[in-house]
Amino acid sequence: MPSMHDRIREDLLNKERALWTALTSADPAPAVQKLCNPEANLMFPQMPILTLENESDFHNALKPPFHRFDGYQLDEVRIIIIDLMAGAVTYKVRAVRGQKEYRATGSTTWGQGSDGEWTIFSHSETLL
C-alpha cells in the first residue's frame, strides 16, 4: 500500500498535469479557474499577476490563444510536500505548436481544502 506521502505526490502530479492540459487547451480560463483557490495568484511571463478578484480580467488574460500548444512535456519534476494538506510542484516545461517552442520553469503551490480538493494558491512560469 502506498504511503500517505506517495499518494499526495501522485495527487499533486495529476493536478499539475490537469493544469497544463487546461493551460494548453483552446479556451483555458474556465478550467484553470476551477483549479484555483479564490485567493490564487498566477504569474505568467510578461503579464501582470492574475487573480480571481476580477473574473472578466482573468478570462480576458487567458483568452485564446493563450498558451495554445499541440503538446507539452514536464521534465525534472520535483514534488515538495509542505504538510498533509499543502505541497509544491516544480519542473521544466517544454511545449510546442507547429515549429514554435515554449520553454520555461514552473512552480505551483497547491493546498487541500476541507472537501479534499487540491486547489492552486500560486503558479508561476519563468521563460528559459
UniProtKB/TrEMBL annotation:
<dbReference type="Pfam" id="PF14534">
    <property type="entry name" value="DUF4440"/>
</dbReference>
<feature type="domain" description="DUF4440">
    <location>
        <begin position="14"/>
        <end position="120"/>
    </location>
</feature>
<dbReference type="InterPro" id="IPR027843">
    <property type="entry name" value="DUF4440"/>
</dbReference>
<dbReference type="InterPro" id="IPR032710">
    <property type="entry name" value="NTF2-like_dom_sf"/>
</dbReference>
<protein>
    <recommendedName>
        <fullName>DUF4440 domain-containing protein</fullName>
    </recommendedName>
</protein>
